[in-house]
Amino acid sequence: MAKKKMTPSQKRQAIWGWAFILPTMLGLIVLNYYPAINTVYQSLCKTGDFGKGNIFVGLNNYKAVLGSAEVWQSLWNTVKYAIVEVPLGIVIALILAVLMQKKLAGKTLFRTLFFLPMVCAPAAVAMVWKWLYNQQFGLLNNVLHTNVAWISDPKIAWISVGIIGVWSIIGYNMVLFIGGLQEIPKDYYEAAQIDGASAVRQFFSITVPLLSPTTFFIVQTRIIGALTVFDLMFMVMDKTNLALNKTQSIVYLFYTYAFTNGNRGYGAAIVMVLVVFIMIVTFFLQKLEKKIVYYN
Q1: What pTM, to 2 d.p., does this model score?
Q2: Domain 60-267 class?
Q3: For residues 173 and 214, what is the distance between their CA atoms, to the nearest angstrom?
């Protein structure tokens, strides 16, 4: 069957359509696709000496990465950070979102204050929290009358950094939860009140199930965000910090090898290992979605 020729009007529409999407396509190619492909290539190469180019070494970088105790320690550090940041950030944000739905004086001000950490510069956040955690002059030790090395003790430094992550993300999670709560029909709560259900019963029987799509979205995105954390680690943990080895994330380790040590091939292999790990986690989360998410 012969194709129909486009009319002049259809041609103009097609040209304008391509003109509108072309900048986005170029942005994706330049900023996303090319760097991704180049990272895969770099992971198969040894960084060239004196800028003379790379030498293809196959899977040697991957063998070195998978056999490195430092890489596995950094991956475990990242998982520990996610264990602290994701659950606490979600639970606290959900409670705050529910409270923000009630009639409270100054509710708009509270929403702004809770969301404020999201718009603060990472450098400013790190500076404030490093002062709070300072062993000698920090506010926490002075208020609690203790002498705890919050970010220098390898046993607790990862928890301290995780708390900063929780504080930073609560506002973002809260806004998403508020959006999800506003989509729940009020009829369910009115019927539950008529039946004599308490506020706690309504929360667990109505709010939690009907909010599960929003909760799952936040869980999935925050796990990926926590596994790729870098700026917080880079700003808070100095290179001379005794707890750095037990705290640095795997992206921090990638930065160290790729940009500080100049070993881009090894650094790219670290990133590819992280990508595979995130894909595996995402795969299991997608399988879990069918069992725990309720779409009304």
Answers
A1: 0.86
A2: mainly alpha
A3: 10
